[in-house]
Amino acid sequence: MNVMTASSSIAAPIARPFIAFEQASVTFGRGEKAVQALQPTDLTISEGDFVALVGPSGCGKSTILKMVSELLKPSSGYVFIGGREIGANPIRIGMAYQNPTLLPWLNIRDNVMLPLKIVPPFRGEFSAKRKGEFRDRVEALLAQVGLSGFGDKYPWQLSGGMMQRANLCRALIHDPELLLLDEPFGALDQFTREELWAIMQDLWLSKKLTVLLVTHDLREAAYLANRICVMSMRPGRILDDSPVDMPRPRTIDMTFQPDFVALNQRLRAMIVGARGGTGIVNHPPGQG
Amino acid sequence: MQRILDIAREKAASTALIIGVFVFWELFCLAANISDILLPRPTQIIAALIKYWPAIWPHTYQTLYTTLVGFAFGVAIGVAIGVLIGSSRLAYDTAYPLLVGFSSIPKVAVVPIFVLWYGAGTVPAILTAMIICIFPIVVNVATGIATVEPELEDVMKTLKASKLDILWNVSLPRAMPYFFASLKVAIALAFVGSVVAETVASNRGIGNMMMIASSSFNVPLVFAGLFVLAGLGVLLYAIFSLIEHRITGWAHRKTDLAAG
Ligand SMILES: Nc1ncnc2c1ncn2[C@@H]1O[C@H](COP(=O)(O)OP(=O)(O)OP(=O)(O)O)[C@@H](O)[C@H]1O
Ligand SMILES: [Mg+2]
After folding, report:
1. Is B18 inside a domain boundary?
2. How many angstroms separate the alpha carbon of residue A37 from the centre of ligand 1?
3. Rounded CA separation B178/B82 (Å)
4. What are the Cα distances from residue B211, in Å, to A218, A285, B71, B204?
5. Which own/partner contact pairs does B38-42 have at CB distance under 8 Å and 24+ positions apart?
6. Is residue B142 part of a domain?
């Protein structure tokens, strides 16, 4: 398996890495209707890493995210978060899906503020600071994703790309130690997507959080991640775990350079193989 | 400016149509020479309304009072049951069949029971108004709460939100449009409930007044009672529509809401 990069904080003697799957598998349903979504899987992610998860549809990527966010328990094996078994000491997690799920009755500022209302320690100070410090905090984050001045707008007044930016802010406002992204840019046009990649990279570089990204876009995975894990068809397992050795900050131009393209092609061939294809793909017109 | 004109035009059309219906009614009765014992003309009804107003007013007040009190209790109980059913699978499975069975009982049939318990008068009318409007509220509130998007719930659970957090921040606001839709149905039903109870077992209220008027063949007064009920119904419906629009404007995606 992959070699763990040395953790930056040597002071805290954490026996296990930040996130560790040890032979964790997931089976939905019972008896004859049982569907194994995930084969026993080993996966480690060290603190501050940026890992992308790619693979055919239905291979269990979202299932892995659900286990990390403790929405789902492994059917067998173990999942350790923050060095402890899940449920032991919850860490702060932010999450963004493809569907922005902003609350239509709140304006963007209040939507982004929602985690502060729920997650300790912000929770206790919420009523005192919502008009002051927290508001500034939201405005600063909105500005970082290019949404300054949109705090008073309601979600339906925003475009899809703007909603996704706000969604990203909501996932980050409570200073999560771990950010989970499930195809967050999937529904956006190419240019908005590339713009958000750059924003995402800046956020990650400035905040030094751990990110686990699920995506179908190999360029996106290679642009953003330090490591790319390729999964097999259902029941999923991790076929390959490749580092992306590109200097940061990366630029869109770099994604067209030969070694970058080569990496993409190798990943693509692997996924095509996993899907049971021939490796020869006919591009539908207009698709990248 | 253009919008105001549009609204005026729209309203003018519907108002003209409503007036047209009454004019047609008036002319039809005159042309067909229909006796006012069968179907009084609108002008006769309004005349009766004015003539008997001092007598009608206390009844109106009584009916409005029983309806609103019954409605208020109905809303409180309906929301409580709706929240419970909407947020718990067990409560849903237990209470839903009971509720459906209960709502299938014609409410007139329970009035005698209330009379037996509390005697004729105000209380049976309040209780009938109450039970008749519980069901639509329960169903709507429960639906609003139970249909929260799973992804949204996942986002909340990932933040380690408690059930109460989710209920308060997501489920209840989300159920508001459903709730208000049910309020408009429920207020009309509450009138039905209290009037039915007054007709059967009370010596006060519009229902009772209409009973007495019809037994003395004062048909214009019976219709005046109907007009009063219809007027109250429309008035309360309008009030709830207004509140609904203010509170759940987001559900209608009104672009002018953000300006306010
Ligand atoms: N609640 C559930 N009950 C039964 N089966 C499920 C459930 N959730 C997921 N599955 C199954 O588990 C498998 C993995 O699902 P998952 O959502 O993790 O896929 P995915 O890799 O995220 O796919 P996609 O890329 O299309 O989002 C799927 O084949 C799906 O049918
Ligand atoms: Mg998925």
Report:
1. no
2. 7
3. 11
4. 78, 77, 23, 10
5. B38/B219, B39/B219, B40/B219, B40/B220, B40/B223
6. yes
Report the number of distinct structural domains present in chain B.
1
Rounded to the nearest angstrom, the minimum Cα separation between B86 and chain A is 19
User: Does residue B243 fall inside a structural domain?
Assistant: yes
Using the predicted structure, report yes or no on whether residue B125 has a pLDDT greater than 80: yes
- Maximum Cα interatomic distance, chain A, rounded to a whole number of Å: 61
ipTM: 0.80
3-state SS, residue A4:
coil
Interval B181-200: pLDDT, tens? 899 899 999 999 999 999 88
What domain range includes position B185? 44-250
Give the chain A residue whose CA is nearest to the CA of B166: A118
Q: Within 13 Å of residue B100, how many CA atoms lie on the same side as its CB? A: 6
- The answer to whether residues B156 and B94 touch, using CB atoms and an 8 Å cutoff, is no
The model's pTM:
0.80
- Pocket test of ligand 1: the residue of A33, A61, A69, A218 to mutate, having most ligand atoms within 8 Å of its CB, is A61
Task: Output the pLDDT for position B110.
Answer: 86
Report the gap between the CA of B150 and the closest CA in chain A (Å): 10
Residues 106-135 of A with CB under 8 A from B: 107, 114-115, 117-119
Residue type, A33: K
- What are the residues whose beta carbon lies below 5 Å from ligand 2 (ion)? A 62
Pick from A38, A53, A62, A67 the residue to mutate for probing ligand 1's pocket: most ligand atoms within 8 Å of its CB.
A62
Structure tokens at A183: 């195809």
Q: Which ligand is nearest to the CA of A38?
A: 1
Provide the shortest C-alpha distance from residue A101 to chain B (in Å).
6
Residues forming beta bridges with residue A33, ordered by sequence position: none
pLDDT, one tens digit per residue, over A113-132 is 999 999 888 888 888 888 88
Residue A3 confidence class, pLDDT cut points 50, 70, 90: very low
Question: Quick count: other Cβ atoms within 10 Å of Cβ B206?
Answer: 27
CATH number at residue B149: 1.10.3720.10
A279: pLDDT strictly greater than 60: no
Give B36-79 pLDDT, tens digit per residue.
888 888 898 999 989 999 989 999 999 999 999 999 999 999 99
Cβ neighbours, 10 Å, residue B95: 18
> What pLDDT, in 10s, does the model give residues A12-65?
444 568 888 888 899 998 888 888 888 898 999 998 899 999 988 888 899 999
